[in-house]
Each structure stands twice: as structure tokens, then as C-alpha cells.
Amino acid sequence: MQGLVLQLTRAGFLLLLWLCIWLVINALRSDARLASGLRPRQKEAKAPRRALFSRTSKIAKYLVVTHGPLANTRITLGQQPVLIGRADDSTLVLNDDYASTRHARLARDGDDWYVEDLGSTNGTYLARNKVTTPTRVPLGTPVRVGKTVIELRP
Fold first, then answer.
1. In this protein, which residues make up the domain named FHA (predicted)?
2. Same domain, 16 and 78
3. Which domain holds residue 132?
4. 17 lies in a domain?
């Protein structure tokens, strides 16, 4: 009887070990997909719209925190993406229990900025709508990450 219990314990431990290895490999694969950046967009469909609005639309120059612990913080935007989260290497480091380590990314595509949720636990919201794919962020539209609300400003 003791031999059977020992063999079942060994098999269960081995199964648990393989499950952990599989979970780590899945996490690494999903992180690699997220790190690759935004999905390519069709330039043909976007070119006429950009030409039509290029004279009247303003370009975002600043990222401003409007609500939360970092309220009134302003970041000058350039060509590089803005990483938002609790990680020390994020562009906007949040001290927020509802934000993930790598929560969201703002990336520039031409004159437009797009927000992408990086698999966060609590989600990223653009004007009360949950972001599931890279989504264009209009100027002045609130983006909520945890308890922090940010906006793009000219």
C-alpha cells in the first residue's frame, strides 16, 4: 500500500512540474508577442484621411495625468512609445495597486497615438470603453489605467 501511495505522489509531483514548465513557456510566448509592438496597419486606407484632416487637426505633444496620485504630471511626447505601469523602467511609473507592472503602451503612428493594453489584470479604458486592440486616442480623451487618468494634449 505504501509503495502505491509513493508512486502516485511521484506521478502527481511530475505532472505538477510539467504543468509549471508549460505555464512558464506560455507566459514567455505571450510576452514575446506583446513586445513586438503594434500590429501593422493598412497605409492605403489611412493616407486619404490624414491628408483630409492634416490642416485642421492638432498633434499631441504632451501626455498629462489628470486624476490620480500623479495628477498634473506632464510628459513631453516624442517618437518613442510610452510604457505605463508599475515597473521601474516604465516611462510613466504608477504607484497604483490597480495597475499592472506593464499595464499599457502608447505608441505613435504618423500623427496619431494608439493605446494598447499589455495584458493587464484590470484593463485599460479609453473614454469608459475597455481597450482590447490597439485603439487610436483622440486629443483630450481620458485613458484610465488603474486609478490614474491620462490625456493627450497639444
1. 82-131
2. no
3. 62-153
4. yes
CA dist., res. 45 & res. 42, Å (int)? 6
d(CA 141, CA 104): 16
Q: Beta strand pairing status for 135-136 and 112-117?
A: antiparallel
For residue 97, what is the domain's CATH number? 2.60.200.20
Q: Output the pTM of the full model.
A: 0.62
Judge whether 134 and 117 are in contact, CB under 8 Å.
Answer: no
67 with 130, same domain? Answer: yes
Number of domains in the chain: 2
* Burial zone of 98 (CB within 10 Å; 0-12 exposed, 13-18 middle, 19+ buried): middle
The model's pLDDT over 32-69, given as tens digits with 9 standing for 90+, comes to 665 555 454 444 444 445 544 444 458 889 999 999 88
